[in-house]
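Long-time lurker, first post. I've been practising inverse folding by hand and with some scripts of my own, and I keep getting stuck on stretches where the structure tokens seem ambiguous. Below is the full token string for one chain I'm working on. Before anyone asks, I'm not after the true native sequence, just a reasonable design that respects the backbone. If someone could post their per-position residues I'd love to compare against what I wrote down in my notebook.
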């Protein structure tokens, strides 16, 4: 399980790469409800929205991603080391983001979508 401080460091890195989001949606896991995350959200002026307990469908995008990762890689592979698992997950993640068009992204890959997404424009996907 990740600590709130580690999550905050990763969020800082993502802001450097992608810019500051207006809102983050998460479950109620301890890393996301920690004082470190509450302070980070306040300092960075990011609204934090928690899904209702026991309602993972309220965060369907990440649940779909996690399910695919489990079905396509984690449940199918017996890793012999942490290093092997990290490499396999990195390769799967790169394939998912750069080689697979997604219907919800107008048949673009997540990487293509990320380079053209403008949060100030309305989305016309599908």
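-- Answer (accepted) --
I ran through it position by position. Result:
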């Amino acid at each position: 399980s990740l600590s709130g401080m580690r999550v905050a460091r990763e969020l800082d890195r993502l802001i450097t790469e992608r810019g500051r989001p207006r809102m983050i949606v998460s479950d109620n896991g301890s890393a996301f409800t920690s004082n470190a995350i509450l302070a980070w959200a306040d300092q960075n002026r990011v609204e934090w929205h928690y899904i209702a307990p026991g309602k993972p469908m309220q965060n369907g995008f990440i649940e779909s991603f996690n399910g695919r990762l489990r079905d396509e890689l984690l449940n199918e592979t017996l890793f012999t080391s942490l290093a092997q698992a990290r490499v396999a997950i990195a390769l799967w993640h790169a394939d998912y983001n750069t080689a697979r068009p997604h219907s919800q992204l107008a048949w673009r890959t997540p990487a293509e979508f990320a380079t053209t997404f403008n949060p100030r424009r309305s989305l016309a996907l599908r």
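A couple of notes from the structure itself: Residues 79 and 86 are 10 Å apart (CA to CA). Confidence is low (pLDDT under 50) at residues 121-126. Happy to go over any region you disagree with.
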